[in-house]
Specification:
alpha+beta; 3 domains; seven-stranded antiparallel sheet; six-stranded mixed sheet; 12 helices
């Protein structure tokens, strides 16, 4: 029956369209459209939105937008083109669906109503009694692409565009499983902030391992079931033998590798060969496999806002034309720069905060070069080369602490950039690098031993702070940048002066993804460095 009804509806639509076309052919008048033939602008607009929504294949999205982005911004980096294409696709959907309607509210008590106040697309019902600006307020995609292209900090974090003002960020983790924390079969290992949980309670035996968790320092316990039934939960049994109730959780494999999990035994701190060697054939045949688990997590995120506006007078617009200057274009350039710097500093500030949380005793928080210069036989080049050594040390510290890979970027001040550029060309201390020594090319600076180096022009010249981090793929721990609207712009005419006014806002989320995102960043300070 459903198929028959669908067929009848299709025949009716075809007949209506044919009648409409015949009327047009006979009279040339499109105003004589039958009432039952609804071909209006809104319908066509919806069709365009549906057409864009159906463009879900990533290769099609990139094939559509990559040439436009490359022509507009000059970007040809594959990774950046990929996420910018996805963002532009989502932005176009927003632009088609969120056109602001005109607001025909009473002009008030003035003799001439004028343009009125600007109402941005996120206006709520509380604005209902205010006069609308009377403007169509589209988002300016070329401006959005320019902001994205100039935001250098986006090279330091993975980018996952959002299709709306809120969404979910998914990421992966791997745990030593073999059971559950909430009942049934017990897992092979657990960890807890409590250090006195070793013992046997309610059919569970907890054996404390000599190694602690590398990230949070929690104690790790091996769990064995000594009885077939239990009176309570695993958590209740563990807390019954501890002085404090600190809770339990599964052990993460990438953070705390446990030798012997897949081999001849479990880690007990004795250093025996059974802990690191494989099992014999006979033992392997009689030993059940220990289970690891893959966990997919998600985090709710919501876009936050940077916004700024600028206005020019009519006199400025008129007079600047004599010099060939477009005042409105200059205003847009200033607003773009303001948004770019704000986003850059937000990302860098969050990275520095996380890096300080990752500080430990393994590396010095500061390095003083005063004594190094005083040693006989050392030149400035010998000493300054140690800055590179410390950057590499912190990159490897990230690999050791986070177990996801070594650090691959560093952010330095102008003075530290000068040090790195000087060492790059110092022949007696050659080092493989591609640091650009052309005057002015300090942001980004280049790369040294596989680490991309960037300068932060907002740092003081004498600052010795160095930030080292790792840019991941968005599925592991670390910061993830999720743009919704990189530059949503409204242009209008001010009511009092009738001069042009431009308002721009950027909406995005900067999310701490995964467990222990601080492990992907490290920082140190260089003191008393000489050029």
């Amino acid at each position: 029956m459903m198929q028959l009804a669908t067929l009848k509806r299709l025949r009716k639509d075809s007949r209506n369209k044919r009648i409409y076309n015949n009327i047009i052919d006979e009279t040339g008048d499109r105003s004589r459209k039958p009432k039952h033939v609804e071909f209006n602008y809104k319908h066509k607009q919806k069709k365009n939105i549906y057409k864009m929504a159906n463009l879900i294949n990533e290769s099609e999205i990139r094939g559509t937008w990559a040439p436009i982005i490359e022509e507009a911004t000059g970007i040809n980096e594959s990774e950046k083109l990929a996420w910018m294409s996805t963002y532009c696709h989502n932005h176009k959907l927003y632009e088609d669906a969120q056109m602001m309607a005109l607001n025909p509210v009473s002009p008030g008590s003035q003799n001439i109503g004028g343009m009125g106040a600007v109402i941005l697309p996120d206006a709520t019902a509380s604005f209902a009694n205010q006069r609308g600006s009377g403007d169509k307020a589209p988002t300016l995609l070329p401006l959005a692409m320019q902001v994205a292209a100039q935001t250098i900090a986006l090279d330091l974090v993975p980018v996952v565009p959002m299709a709306g003002p809120m969404g979910l960020l998914s990421y992966l983790d791997f745990v030593y499983e073999g059971g559950r924390l909430d009942g049934g079969v017990a897992p092979t290992y657990i960890k807890s902030e409590s250090t006195d949980g070793a013992g046997e309670t309610d059919g569970y035996k907890f054996t404390k391992l000599d190694k602690a968790s590398r990230i949070d320092g929690f104690a790790i316990y091996e769990v064995e079931e000594t009885a077939g039934t239990h009176n309570g939960t695993l958590l209740a049994a563990f807390e019954a033998g501890t002085a404090e109730d600190k809770g339990i959780e599964l052990v993460k494999a990438l953070e705390d590798h446990i030798p012997g999990f897949s081999g001849a035994g479990s880690f007990n701190g004795t250093g025996g060969v059974s802990d690191v060697y494989p099992m014999s054939r006979e033992t392997g045949e009689r030993t059940p496999d220990k289970i690891m688990g893959l966990s997919l997590f998600s985090k709710s995120v919501a876009a936050e806002t940077f916004q700024v506006a600028a206005a020019v007078t009519r006199e400025q617009v008129q007079d600047l034309k004599q010099f060939g200057v477009d005042a409105v274009a200059q205003v847009e350039a200033v607003l773009t720069n303001e948004l770019t710097q704000s986003i850059n500093q937000h990302i860098l500030a969050e990275m520095r905060r996380l890096a300080k949380e990752n500080a430990g005793t393994e590396l010095d928080a500061s390095v003083d070069f005063t004594a190094a210069y005083a040693l006989g036989g050392n030149t400035f080049g010998d000493v300054n080369r140690r800055v590179l050594t410390h950057i590499l040390a912190h990159a490897n510290f990230i690999a050791n602490k986070g177990r996801r890979g070594a650090g691959n970027f560093a952010v330095v001040s102008a003075k530290m950039a000068s040090v790195l550029q000087g060492v790059a060309g110092f022949v007696p201390n050659p080092m493989a690098n591609t640091v650009n020594q052309v005057a002015g090319a300090i942001y980004p600076l280049g790369s040294v031993a596989g680490i991309n180096v960037y300068t932060d022009p907002t740092q003081s010249f004498e600052s010795g702070d160095v930030l080292v981090g790792r840019k991941g793929d968005g599925n592991g721990p670390g910061l993830v940048f999720m743009p919704y609207l990189m530059a949503e712009s409204v242009q209008t005419i001010a009511e009092g002066t009738m001069a042009p006014k431009v308002a721009v806002k950027s909406r995005y989320a900067l999310v701490e993804a995964g467990f222990h995102p601080q492990t992907q960043y490290s920082t140190f300070e260089v003191k008393n460095i000489q050029l």
